[in-house]
Here is the input.
Amino acid sequence: MILSCTGTSALKNNDSTWARWITTACDLFLSILLGFGLSSLINYYQQRKVKSILQVSTEQIMSKCERKLKFNKHIPQKTLSEFVPLQPYRAIVIRQQTSPVIVNELIIEARKTNKFTIHPYDYKSSGDHYLEIEFLQQSSSIIISIEIFHQQNLLFERIDDFLSIILHPSNMIYTWKDFDKNLIDYQSYQVFLNGDINQCHFVNVQNCFKTWYNTTFGHNQNCNQLLDFNDIDDPLCSCSHRPVKCPTEQWSLTNAIAYTFHQNFSNGSTSSKTCPAITKLFNIIQNNWTRQQIEYFRKQCHINSPNG
Ligand SMILES: [Zn+2]
Here is the structure.
C-alpha cells in the first residue's frame, strides 16, 4: 500500500513537471509570436513614414523646380521682335498634285548642295505628314515642304530619288532633336526602307545649343546656385536669362530663339520658319558667337524692327 502511494506520487510529480515545461514552451512561443508581430507592425509604420517623407521631399523639389521654370520661362512677348532668318529664302510646297518637273529642278539644286536642315511635322487635323527641308546655300536658301504619300506614279518616284540624294552620307543634315529614322510614314521611300538613312551625318542642333548657350551666357554673380564646382543647369539658379533649370531638360526651339535673339518664333504646323530657325542657331554656334556679338545683333534687329 505504501509502495503504491509512493508510485502514484512520483507519477503526479512527473506529470506536473511536463505540464510546467509545456506551459513554459507555450509562453515562449506566444512571446516570440507577439514580438515578431510587434516588430513587423513597427517596421511597416516606419517604412510608410520614410516613404511619405521621401515623397514629400521629391514633390517639394519638383514643385520648386517647376515654379522656377514657370517663372523664368515667362518672357513678355511685347519685348520680342519678329523672327528674321539669317538669309532670304524661297518656299516651295510639294503635294500630290505637284508637277514632277518641279521636283526634277529641285534634284538639280540638291546635287549642288551638301548641307540641309530637316524638320518633320504633321497637320494634326488632317493627319498629313510633311518633311520640311532647307537647302543651305551661299546667299539664299530654298525651303521645301514635302507631303508624305505613297502612290505608284512619276511624282512619287522623283521624290524618292530626291530624298535619296539629300539623305546621302556625303551631306550634313541639321535637325532639332534626334531625327526619328524609323518613322513608319517614311518607310515607303527607299532611303528609309533600305537603311541608307543610318549612314547619314545628322547634327542635333538642340544638344549643341545647350552647350554653347551655357558657355556664352553664364550665371549672374548673385545667382542662388552654388557655383563653386559646376555651373550646369540647376533648380537653385535664379538667373532669368537661363530658363532651363534641370540638367536633363532640353530647350524648345521657340525659347532658344527668344532667349538668344529676343525674337518671337512660333513653330506652328503651317509655318515654314522651323528650318530657318534651326539653321540660324547652328550658324551662330558654328561661328562661336560671343555674348557681345549676340547683344550687338539684338540691338541692330531692334533698331531695324517696325516697332523699334
Ligand atoms: Zn544662375
Notes: The radius of gyration is 35 Å. Strands lie at 81-82, 89-94, 115-122, 129-136, 141-147, 172-175, 201-204, 263-264. The CA atoms of residues 50 and 56 lie 10 Å apart.
